[in-house]
Amino acid sequence: xxETYLLPIRTAAILFPVLALLTFVPTAVVLYRxxxxxxxxxxxxxxxxxxxxxxxxCMTVVPLPSRAVDVCAKYPTFADPQWTPxxxxxxxxxxxxxxxxxxxxxxxxxxxxxxxxxxxxLLPLGVLAxxxxxxxxxxxxxxxxxxxxxxxxxxxxxxxxxxxxxxxLFAMDDLLVNTAGAAVGWALAAPLARALPALDTxxxxxxxxxxxxxxxxxxxxxxxxxxVFLLTGVLTVLAMVLLSxxxxxxxxxxxxxxxxxxxxxxxxxxxxxxxxxxxxVRTRDGGRPHPAALTLRGALLVLPQLLLWAVAGLVLSRxxxxxxxxxxxxxxxxxxxxxQAVRDAGLSGSREFLSTLASDPAAGLVLLLVLLGCPALVAxxxxxxxxxxxxxxxxxxxSGVRNEALxxxxxxxxxxxxxxxGRTAAGGGDAHGxxxxxxxxxxxxxxxxxxxxxxxxxxxAGSGV
Length: 465
Fold this sequence. Notes:
It is a single chain. This protein has helices at 2-35, 40-61, 71-74, 87-95, 102-107, 110-121, 123-131, 137-156, 158-161, 172-188, 190-195, 199-206, 214-243, 251-267, 271-275, 291-317, 323-332, 338-359, 361-387, 394-399, 409-426, 453-458; strands at 278-282, 401-405. By secondary structure, it is an all-alpha fold. The protein has 2 domains: 2-205, no CATH class; 211-319 and 360-461, no CATH class. The protein has a two-stranded antiparallel sheet with strand order 1-2.
């Protein structure tokens, strides 16, 4: 019986690190946009809650039947849901062998422990609802009922059609006991909710207006680097297909100018920074940066990365079976089944490429150094930013352009309401000033965020990356 509960926990422990890694960037984007900062307590709450949710789900579906098992024949009684409440009491009496003793009725009664497990399954949800989300009892009961119904439907549908028939029973008692567990958790969390401050309060204490936390800048940089890499690939393919292979050499430079110069000049931020509610301003006065300064900043930031990838591309192009094999077939447009030709060329080229790489360790070492060099450069930049008294990186200092954090979405609604009230009292006018930079320039796509001179002055100690 113990193994029945330990196996789902071990399964969740194996799956969680992979899921946490895959969802880290989206989670960081959501938290930084909403709260402006990721404190250790919020990270603990988010990922602790995620691990609990995964464990609870595994508890309801693991262990999975083998695909070779005919679940319809093995579990025929599970095809019909058990709608009668109170069946658990009959199961307890049956498991006790109709013996009225402590051991038979409680200690050694599997039906009792199954009911206790169902009670504890959603108890942490009630605690999270009261402590983390600050919800009342009705909302907690509704959330518990919804989660329990989801679990029961997952079981009744055979893991949403993965199996032809259900291999676990849909029981009304489980639905009621799970929901009651959430309510019990909410009640037990009362002292904890009174003792702990709200996470929003902790965020407000740690957040300095206008200052961008380093993690927020780093996530924006990661998104920008990924975006430039993808845009370069798209432009390269378009150039080779629509123009000529020789024009593809300009794709990285065009992608760089579009991403780091044209877009920031037009909207005030790169797409990655815009997503993280950051914008680029002049260090000396917080105004709109000149295109030359944006070009210099972007070049200082990405040129070392581009040089590393250029080295990698040079090494790959000189190896037999490299990417040119597939691209040449695609661009040439041979008659016949072009798709099959590309697949055949890719498979053949991959085998030749791996064989050559195995026989030429020097080329493999170069590629490995390139792969290690990119994170090494990011780490060196991070160290420089961390050691600078104003949080600026070398590219910020030399270009005279820095990051400025915009208010998170959690506070923007309140800011807009306050600004609107002030505007009404003053008799109208633009609530957002003359533009996103407040320098009389053209309006900015980020101009829906109030421009606060006091915050900009406090943020003059800028932020790199």
